[in-house]
Amino acid sequence: GQRKRQNVQRSRSTGGEAYLALRPIDGLLLSGSVNYDHDVIVADAITPANVGHYIGRVPQQRQVIRASYGTPALGSLTALWRHEGHNSTLNGTQLDPFTVVDLSYVHDLPRGASLFAAVENVADREYQVNLSGAIVSLGLPRTVRLGMRGERN
Hints:
Elements: E1 9-22, E2 28-44, E3 61-71, E4 75-84, E5 87-88, E6 94-95, E7 98-108, E8 114-120, E9 128-132, E10 135-138, E11 143-149
Antiparallel strand pairs: 1-2, 2-3, 3-4, 4-7, 5-6, 7-8, 8-11, 9-10
């Protein structure tokens, strides 16, 4: 027999997003974004029990606030606050909301090189990124990256 791909479900998606960026002084950038998605399955001929469930891997709310300050002499420092509201796994299980803060610093050196340092999940918050049966996958713990980048001319 011949296999044929078909859409077997319908969904309804409503939501919105907003973004605002400000430069109150030279070198400082403040920005924020908010995103809301309400994505649900409204018809599924193969698995009717899925009707009413959220679409997997689509966070219902997401907010990000970023503050960056940089000058050629000092380099650039960025702080990032991220929040994700309830999120569904591909099997429909709801994940808990989480909030993390990341920091990064970059300093340009002569001849196209730069030093960088970054700390992801500064507070070392434990948060779920997937849940399958009894197996829970967690997001990154506090992660520190240090290095140097260079360009060859």
